[in-house]
Amino acid sequence: MITGLNHITIAVSNLAQSLEFYRDILGFKAHVKWLGGAYLSVGDMWFCLSCDEPSPAQDYTHIAFSISEEDFHRFSERVLAQGVNVWKKNKSEGLSLYILDPDGHKLELHSGSLSSRLESLKEKPYPELEWL
Fold first, then answer.
1. Phi and psi torsions of 23, nearest 5°
2. 84 Cβ contact partners less than 8 Å away, ≥ 6 residues apart
3. Is the model's pLDDT at 92 over the cut of 90?
4. Strand order in the sheet with 96-100
5. Are strands 45-51 and 7-12 parallel, antiparallel or unpaired?
6. Nearest to 42 by CA among 74, 75, 70, 14
7. pTM of the predicted model, to two decimals?
8. Percent of the chain with pLDDT over 90
9. Helix (H) or strand (E) holding 114
10. Residues 45, 7: contact at Cβ < 8 Å?
């Protein structure tokens, strides 16, 4: 039986550049690096950078990371001041900043939770929403 999410691995074209982005700009904790990659963590999540040919999603697929509402604005301003590109404007519940990593992987910094999103759907449901 699946008990949760174990780790996330993304392909990166330049390990040093990606390590700098995730460690120095986003604040992930770096643990080890080697010729072909690096292991980091964010909260309790294991995050791997793997040297390969990146092929970022062209659709809405993205990785969202949690941030507190209290830290959101200060952190977002700091990230944007580093020249990080935005790929989408937030139109949903909670505070979100949608950014691209150096290889164009779509990321989101989000202050909400599944509970807060479900509550917001009671007030403003998506088209043809069906509660399961």
1. -80, -55
2. 21, 25, 99, 100
3. no
4. 63-66, 106-110, 96-100, 86-88
5. parallel
6. 75
7. 0.93
8. 95
9. helix 114-123
10. yes
